[in-house]
């Protein structure tokens, strides 16, 4: 960059600083100067923002050593750049205590040995700073225009990285989540000392600056610049920010185009869900779409919207793109298939088998909290995650279990407490039995007396029965959970014994009754489906 920061040392080389003496703080002459103030009062802390060079005649403290000490202390605490004092009119010397404090804090104190026009000093330096700021804006605008032109023609983001390196001269580091770090230039010959400095710069240092690249509200990549021989200045940070924005636009465009291309592969993926492809065919397909072939099984997840109308009104391409960016960060390759009012994802696992479920839960959590789901008012939807399969040619098994999960969730409504097929346990058995026989009739055989009693007398025997079984027959615990006195509970248990038989807590009969209660909840009439909905 053609502009650089102005330091105290640079100021001392300008006009009106010919006759000066540096009384203290020699090691702080590299402090940045962003503005110049003339100050003649002792209380200054509420007037400064940092990086100001202070000009003073000393009238604010005159010969009062304690006031002078307090004044300098305030300047140091406010991160002022330095203090220039005109000697002779109101101040004749600098107390040793002040010099010691300034040296300790590397705070420059400069003495004008001859009278100088403060107004001309401020005009000169302010003009320089304003011109420099204008130059920064001009150069930034020029860079942005060139960058926008490149965005219209480039084929790969590597050209943006090279342009950034060429413009600033810094080493460029770029990393997309889940991929290897990219360096521009890829290799720079350095001395051993420089290489050691560069290696250490890969960790947080003063000479490295980073900018996250967010796509659809999620962190997708990170762009960094590293300087070996000079500090990274404000202009570098502005250029870095503009480049990160351009990269986000380019990457989003590529992802969108890729998502459109994926839509054309819908039929092949649909056949995969139906179990029509061999392991070899699946491997060949993945080899054409993935740079790394380290797959460790997979599963199917279904996102079903409440109605076809809501599905059609949604930008499905963006929804699939959002899911892809989220779940790929969790270690899954996603292959979407649209079907009626659902988006079905074939999820190929690329990380440890033991963590797939936790990572999927985190991905769902991020999806439901995303700006796109909340601010775009995405309609309600169910989520069903099928059985994990280690052989990718058996994805049809996971697909069937994902469909079963959606069916169970739709039936249970708000009582469904998991998106995962493997967590539904007893409800999977209930659904399977119901397919083969009239399970509802069997349920009523066991529970109808209790159900009819509750309807007739507006009682709470079903609730009592359920809690009593959950508490393993502990009357004390049951009474506590139901918020009733012991006598009330004893009365209800007597009613249950009368309706169900005094052997209803016998192990085999108790197990059957517990199963029937779960089945009754599954078949309960007027059960409103609880769809996943974003918080409004």
From TrEMBL:
InterPro entries cross-referenced by the UniProt entry: CdaR-like_regulators, PucR_C-HTH_dom, PucR_C-HTH_sf, PucR_dom
A Pfam family that the UniProt record links to this protein: HTH_30
Positions of the PucR C-terminal helix-turn-helix domain: 461-519
Every Purine catabolism PurC-like domain range: 10-129
Stated name of the protein: PucR family transcriptional regulator
